[in-house]
Amino acid sequence: MNSRQDDLKQDLDAALQTRKELGKEYEAEIVDSFLTRLDARIDAQVDQRVADGLAQHGVGDGRRGGRGGWSSAGRLPVVSLVLAIPLTGIAAGANLTGMIVCWAGIVGVNVAAAVGARAEQRNARPGRGDWN
Fold it and tell me: Where are the alpha helices (DSSP H) in the chain?
């Protein structure tokens, strides 16, 4: 077993021991706590795999790939789509209107970021507004 699996096994053992000590009335809280830690671990592993994959393709390691590298403007669409999954689930639980508002917000943030990035690129071009 690798260290990640050992850590996970230790966390599960600790949760089971805590459940034995505290009894059934705290079972839901213990399970929620364990699942929260598990979710954080999974997120960290996914982030690491994405970073490794991007580094293999020359994105995010100092080299400029594609349209300017892995800048904050390039990360926003990826992050917003990752966050869109749970947000859609939460909003859909309310009603269709909630889901539409959720997606309108996601689209609005991405459009604003794209417009801002385009304006930055336009202002960064040499000879535009420079008196040198």
Answer: 3-22, 27-56, 72-94, 96-124
